[in-house]
């Protein structure tokens, strides 16, 4: 029996899972790490935290499983997208990574748009200049930390930094590179025009691979630190959403998934490139060679509930610690005690600004309609509803682009909640499906690893053998109508407060 590893470098933590050729998970391990916010709207992480988490979780799954390291033929990695990792000549990080959630770069986005031109940026990168993307982060360092920029010799994405630590190779792949805003997305290669006009040497960037292609082997150093064999291959892997698509079988036209992780995503596969001219949803190369995907992203999905858990639901967190039950399960039970609409309470989940559909780095979260009669259950439900309404914005845009969403696979931490799955089905008005194992991005990364190792002839055939559906949640027509009324009010909140957000930002 041959085995494959899937490693998912997330924002909250890293998870590594060992699979056999049938898709059965044999062992898994996770490690959390902190998010640093030195200023309002900033978000950074320490690359060494990612490296240590990778070493630790790989070692743990090998020990738990007891498999022979020589039988682990390949490793695939999934990673949070858009993060900027800058290395010097010696391969050491020059500063903390500015990650996807960071919103400091609106000025740089404006500069990039002026230099390249809005229409030309979309022609090349399939997206407008956005604060979350990597190009504006690079320009921010150029503008604000020239002493660091002058020392830069390598520019990597988070998972590709792990690739370097595990293999010694500087490489990336098309799905993750699509989110850097320096890739020619239609032609799946670095854009000489973007690099030249933004003064980014191509020599600083890794070679671009397709997701299932082999990029290297485990190095002698990493083999000692993880227990892996130097024979183990490492493939391109994928950005977290592209990997989740593979892990849920969304690898053909007409298939879609929704994930509630730290961020929230609604994602649809397409064999032909399709670009929203308004730039509200993103088009990237996907992990299936020669194909693309269209997705809407909200910045703070699970992050909103995590904030509520940490700052408000202290009793639930204490109960969870005392009983061993997940705090989110306790919060979901509380939310079920509140009616649809949370007793006329609406939450806008713009804790880190917003991408789809507003493209506004300055908007912020809030409760609208809060009164003295509201209880904690109402707050929990309104946060869960607000996140779901924000994701429904993406659903509505995709429907308007002619994308069929009769069935949506639910992945991520939010998918574990039966209550939240039912809410998604009722709000979206379509069937919500889950998968056995629920490993999502880690399974997708492992599938890509299996294809790269020659265990499967294609990504599609690997998905057929390794993915099994667990069940479906059907929408209720009456509840759908009730949610639609609240959603209609929710959609009016952002336009009403758009100017207020700008004024708040201007306050010193």
Description:
The chain folds into two domains: 3-248 and 440-467, 2-Layer Sandwich (Nucleotidyltransferase, domain 5), CATH 3.30.420.40; 302-433 and 472-502, 2-Layer Sandwich (Nucleotidyltransferase, domain 5). Helix content is 40%, strand content 20%. The model has no long low-confidence stretch (mean pLDDT 95). With 508 residues, it is of the alpha/beta class. It is globular, with a radius of gyration of 22 Å. It is built from 18 helices and 24 strands. Strands 1, 2, 3, 5, 13, 14 and 15 form a seven-stranded mixed beta sheet that branches. The N and C termini lie far apart (62 Å).
Q: What's the CATH architecture name of the largest domain?
A: 2-Layer Sandwich
Name the beta content range.
Answer: 15-25%
Helix content estimate: 40-55%
In terms of quaternary structure, what is this? Answer: single chain
Number of E strands: 24
CATH fold name of the largest domain, please? Answer: Nucleotidyltransferase, domain 5
Number of continuous helical runs = 18
Dominant shape: globular
Whole-number count of domains: 2
Rg (C-alpha, Å): 22 Å
CATH class of the largest domain: Alpha Beta
Largest β-sheet summary = 7 strands, mixed
Report the uncertain regions. Answer: none
What structural class results from the helix and strand content? alpha/beta
């Amino acid at each position: 029996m041959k085995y494959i590893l899937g490693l998912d470098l997330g924002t909250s933590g890293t998870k590594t899972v060992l699979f056999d050729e049938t898709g059965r998970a044999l062992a898994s391990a996770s490690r959390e790490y902190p998010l640093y916010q030195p200023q309002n709207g900033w978000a950074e992480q320490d690359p060494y935290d990612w490296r240590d988490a990778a070493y630790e979780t790989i070692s743990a799954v090998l020990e738990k499983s007891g498999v022979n390291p020589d039988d682990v033929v390949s490793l695939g990695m999934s990673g949070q997208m858009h993060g900027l990792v800058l290395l010097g000549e010696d391969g050491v990080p020059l500063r903390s990574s500015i990650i996807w959630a960071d919103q400091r770069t609106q000025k740089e986005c404006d500069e990039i748009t002026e230099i390249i031109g809005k229409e030309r940026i979309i022609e090349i990168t399939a997206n407008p200049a956005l604060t979350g993307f990597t190009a504006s982060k690079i320009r921010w360092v150029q503008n604000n930390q020239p002493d660091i920029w002058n020392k830069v010799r390598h520019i990597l994405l988070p998972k590709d930094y792990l690739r370097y630590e595990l293999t010694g190779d500087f490489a990336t792949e098309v799905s993750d590179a699509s989110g850097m805003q320096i890739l020619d997305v239609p032609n799946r290669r670095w854009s000489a025009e973007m690099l030249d006009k933004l003064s980014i040497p191509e020599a600083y960037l890794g070679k671009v691979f397709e997701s299932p292609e082999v990029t290297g082997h485990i190095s002698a150093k990493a083999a000692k630190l993880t227990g892996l064999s130097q024979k183990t291959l490492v493939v391109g892997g994928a950005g977290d959403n592209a990997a989740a698509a593979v892990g849920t079988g969304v690898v053909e036209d007409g298939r879609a998934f929704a994930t509630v992780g730290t961020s929230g995503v609604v994602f649809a596969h397409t064999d032909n490139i399709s670009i929203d001219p308004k730039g509200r949803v993103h088009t990237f190369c996907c992990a299936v060679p020669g194909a693309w995907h269209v997705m809407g992203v909200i910045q703070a999905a699970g992050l909103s509930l995590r904030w509520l858990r940490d700052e408000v639901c202290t009793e639930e967190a204490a109960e969870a610690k005392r009983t061993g039950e997940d705090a989110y399960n306790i919060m979901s039970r509380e939310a079920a005690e509140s009616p649809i609409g949370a007793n006329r309470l609406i939450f806008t989940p713009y804790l880190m600004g917003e991408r789809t559909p507003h493209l506004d780095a300055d908007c912020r979260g809030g409760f609208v309609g809060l009164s003295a009669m509201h209880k904690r259950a109402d707050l929990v439900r309104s946060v869960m509803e607000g996140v779901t309404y924000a994701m429904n914005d993406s659903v509505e845009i995709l429907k308007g682009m002619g994308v069929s969403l009769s069935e949506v696979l639910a992945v991520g931490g939010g998918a574990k909640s039966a209550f939240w799955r039912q809410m998604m089905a009722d709000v979206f008005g379509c069937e919500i499906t889950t998968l056995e194992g629920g490993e999502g991005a880690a399974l997708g990364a492992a599938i890509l690893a299996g294809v790269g190792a020659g265990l499967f002839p294609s990504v599609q055939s690997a998905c057929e053998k390794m993915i099994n559906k667990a069940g479906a949640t059907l929408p209720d027509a009456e509840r759908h109508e009730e949610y639609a009324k609240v959603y209609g009010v929710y959609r009016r909140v952002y336009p009403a407060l758009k100017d207020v957000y700008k004024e708040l930002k201007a306050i010193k």
